[in-house]
Write a structure and sequence with these properties.
2 domains, 298 residues, binds zinc ion, Alpha-lytic protease prodomain-like
Length: 298
């Protein structure tokens, strides 16, 4: 297993942000008695649960391979990302439901003052943390951190939607606008959540590595193709930040084991130089034996 820094400290940042927003919203509820703020605080508890889930997943992912998990623990991040995606979809469902309900049964907007102020403050905190998590997540190819960042970002959109809605109603005097804006935001959030769930389950399904990296693998193998040397049955899969590639290397049958192995080492080194966090498995076989062309598994 390649060594990768333990990324769980970034999940701690998210846990801190969740605790802070819960405290802010609870304080605002205590000051104003607004039930809306209390349910807002409850919503932030979801962020806390998600952040703790990401923390646990990242701790597990950072463990090196062991007797029980010979290929490492990188996939644990997908579980956290799937849960984040599902939580986002459920949260968006609630927004959608309450917006449609308000559209059908219009009522006065609750006094916005301190509640909106607290929401904006919480959104600024969440927005900054989301931006950091997503950039670290992309840099280290961490599904859990990217998912948690996207999750926090949906909170920012929700608050932005509320503000835009309130402003539009004030400008136009047309009441239903704030519900319509909230519905649009909720639909957008459902799409984000759905993509998270889809991408992460695909990761759990041993999806092939991204096209650009597969092309890099093929370029390296082409470079080593020569008289009597060929490759076939190339298979790849992605596991968190780790990429696995396995292939058969066909060489002249009268080569010594040492010569074949030397070439295999060179090919592996070239592949690892071009693709980050790559693990190779090479099967060496004589090019003149018809059995060589049978794939490992049918
Ligand atoms: Zn070897
Ligand atoms: Zn073969």
């Amino acid at each position: 297993m390649s060594e990768r820094t333990d990324l769980s400290k970034w999940a701690l940042l998210s846990i801190g942000a969740a605790v802070l927003t819960i405290a802010l919203k609870t304080l605002a509820w205590w000051l104003t008695g607004s039930v809306g703020l209390l349910s807002d605080a409850a919503e932030s508890v979801v962020n806390l649960v998600a952040a703790i889930g990401a923390f646990i997943a990242l701790r597990i992912a950072a463990k090196p391979s062991d007797d029980d998990h010979n290929f490492g623990h990188a996939k644990s991040e997908y579980f956290s990302a799937v849960v984040e995606g599902a939580m986002i979809v459920v949260a968006a469902g609630f927004i959608l439901f309450s917006s449609i309900e308000r559209l059908l049964h219009p009522r006065e907007i609750e006094s916005v003052g301190i509640g909106l102020g607290i929401s904006v403050l919480a959104s600024i905190v969440n927005g900054l943390v989301a931006w950091k998590l997503m950039s670290v997540g992309r840099r280290f190819r961490s599904a859990a951190l990217e998912a948690d960042g996207k999750h926090l970002l949906t909170d920012v959109w929700t608050t932005a939607g509320v503000i835009v809605g309130v402003a539009l109603v004030a400008l136009t005097g047309w009441g239903p606008l704030d519900s319509i804006v909230a519905i649009a935001v909720a639909i957008n959030i459902v799409v984000v959540g759905w993509h998270l769930v889809r991408d992460s389950t695909m990761g759990l399904m041993d999806t092939v590595i991204p096209d650009a990296e597969r092309a890099a693998v093929d370029r390296v193998l082409d470079r080593f193709r020569a008289d009597g040397v060929d490759f076939h049955d190339v298979r790849t899969r992605e596991s968190g930040h780790v990429r696995f590639v396995q292939f058969h290397m066909l060489v002249p049958g009268d080569w010594t084991v040492r010569r074949g192995h030397d070439l295999a080492e060179d090919v592996e080194a070239a592949l690892r130089a071009d693709v980050e966090d790559l693990h190779c498995a090479v099967h060496l076989e004589p090019i003149d034996d018809p059995r060589s062309y049978e794939p490992w598994r049918r």
